[in-house]
């Protein structure tokens, strides 16, 4: 259903945002055989792009009142960060 599609979209946006941020932390110049965002536009822009992707996913859920999905994902991100 639509909620499932939105949840999947949130996960994909979050995943992509973490990859962008990870490339900044690792100073990676490539991602999957292509230039990374930080290689093209430097770290400041790459961090902002990652933040933008995260915010788009969060707003997608908020605007559709998918609060339980946000709670589950927030808990997962907290656990990943602690790890």
Could you explain the architecture of this structure?
With 83 residues, the protein is mostly helical. It is 82% helix and 5% strand. The protein is built from 3 helices and 2 strands, in the order H-E-E-H-H. It has helices at residues 2-26, 37-63, 67-82, and strands at 30-31, 34-35. It is elongated, with a radius of gyration of 14 Å. The model has no long low-confidence stretch (mean pLDDT 94).
Biggest sheet descriptor = 2 strands, antiparallel
Note the run of SSEs as H and E.
HEEHH
Q: Could you tell me how far the N terminus lies from the C terminus, measured between alpha carbons in angstroms?
A: 32 Å
Q: Per DSSP, what share of the residues sits in E-state strands of 2 or more residues?
A: under 5%
- Overall mean pLDDT stands at 94
Q: Structural class, from helix and strand content?
A: mainly alpha
User: What would the principal axes of the Cα set say about the shape?
Assistant: elongated
Q: What is the spatial order of strands in the main beta sheet? A: 1-2
Number of strands: 2
Which runs of at least 5 residues are low in confidence (pLDDT < 50)?
A: none
Tally the helices: what do you get?
Answer: 3
Oligomer: single chain
Rg estimate, integer Å: 14 Å
Percent in helix = over 70%
